[in-house]
UniProtKB/TrEMBL annotation:
This is Zinc finger MYM-type protein 1. The gene is ZMYM1_67. It comes from the Eukaryota. The lineage of its organism: Eukaryota, Metazoa, Ecdysozoa, Arthropoda, Hexapoda. It comes from Sipha flava. InterPro entries: RNaseH-like_sf (IPR012337).
Length: 143
């Protein structure tokens, strides 16, 4: 059995890529393996699920052996009706969805920061500095 973790991010050329990671347990303990980056054209749950399922079929990874799926909290990924997790769950009812802890913690931190005006101002200023020095994401790799 295994679980999957999927996220998307733009690369340095601003091409959106889907990252697929698999996690399984051996007698030596849990193992996480990066499997691939896949260029994507949009972010709908249906599209992302179809990309993931095609990758699984092409690489002979049986979706019926999946016991867990973890994504961020965006509705296209975690939505109960048309989110990627719902589509995968419809294919395999044993593939339980668990929201990504890192993304959830980030949301908690963001909500906490939003409660304090001075903190909002500080992080707004830090963001403005970043935008000034790094106006294009392509510049990031140069520093």
């Amino acid at each position: 059995y295994y679980s999957i973790s999927v996220d998307s991010t733009p690369d340095i050329s601003h091409t959106d890529q889907l990252t697929i990671i698999i996690r399984y347990v051996t007698c030596n303990g849990p193992v996480e393996r990066f499997l691939t980056f896949i260029n994507i054209e949009n972010h709908t749950g249906e599209y992302l699920a179809s990309i993931l399922l095609k990758f699984m079929v092409d690489n002979e990874i049986d979706i019926n052996l999946c016991r867990g799926q973890s994504y961020d909290n965006a509705s296209n990924m975690s939505g109960p009706c048309s989110g990627m997790q719902a589509i995968i769950k419809a294919k395999n009812p044993f593939a339980d969805f668990i929201p990504c802890t890192a993304h959830s913690l980030n949301l908690v931190g963001q909500s906490t920061v939003d409660c304090c005006v001075k903190t909002v101002s500080f992080f707004g200023f830090v963001q403005e500095l970043y935008n000034f020095f790094f106006p294009h994401r392509q510049v990031d790799g140069q520093f």
